[in-house]
Input
Amino acid sequence: MKTIRVLLAFLLLFMMLPACGSADAENPASDFEYEENEDGTITITSYIGTDPDVVIPSAIQSKSVTKIGVNAFRKNSATSVIMPNTIIEIAADAFYQCDRLQAITLSTNLVQIGSSAFQECARLKSITIPSQVRAIGDQAFDSSGLETIAFEDGIEIIGGYGAFACTQIKQLVFPSTLKEIGDSAFAACPNLESVALNEGLVTIGHKAFVNNPKLKEIIIPKTVETVTEMDFNMCSGLKKIMFEGDAPTTFEFSDSVSGVWEPYDVHFTVYYHEGAEGFTSPEWYGYPTVCIP
Output
């Protein structure tokens, strides 16, 4: 009797295996329109299948799939997409206004995300940006439903004007490798409460964090050399900016009148360590200052 029970258990497990494997089975080539690139690889130009859960094949006709083309999934009704690790580029508008898209797994070898690639994907709540990504296009995730963003170690630049603007993110933690945050990258994120800038960061682009009313405090690492006059403008809840090192040496988009931040928007206090160079007291560019012994 015991032997029969064991055999039945193994039989049941064997019967379940195909069903488990089918969840991540690649969609057939017939679900896509595609073209061959000059280097012999494949670009997906359109998804014409009906399956809402899409697994992009790693190869078509024995040729590696390396790119998701312009408008390939634009306004498509897919709810999930898994990319093979052969993909190195997502072109402009590739997933623009895919308002049913809830989950996407990016290629670990992805290098480039095009402009507006995921703009207005309202149901997309989370994303992991792989370490190999070197370029994020303008408004790549603008006005999407993103609540969480994970940046893997290795990323050096979060570029692209408004790359993550108008999203629903609540907190940001940047990898130690990051050197530059682009213009308006995280502008107008109404729920953003916490930003952890990394040691090693050099440049905070113009209006990078403008109009984030729930942001209350931010610490500027000593490695930062460039800030702009409107980086934290319209952050009405911001009360404290703490500089860990000397005053930044480069003030982009600034002049002798406006200085680092717009003087009419005085709502926070600048804190700096005793011995730090470049700060003035009791005000610095129109902002009250506190020197910490």
Summary: Residues 42-169 form a domain with the Leucine-rich repeat, LRR (right-handed beta-alpha superhelix) fold (CATH 3.80.10.10). The longest strand covers residues 42-47. The CA atoms of residues 246 and 277 lie 5 Å apart. The radius of gyration is 24 Å.
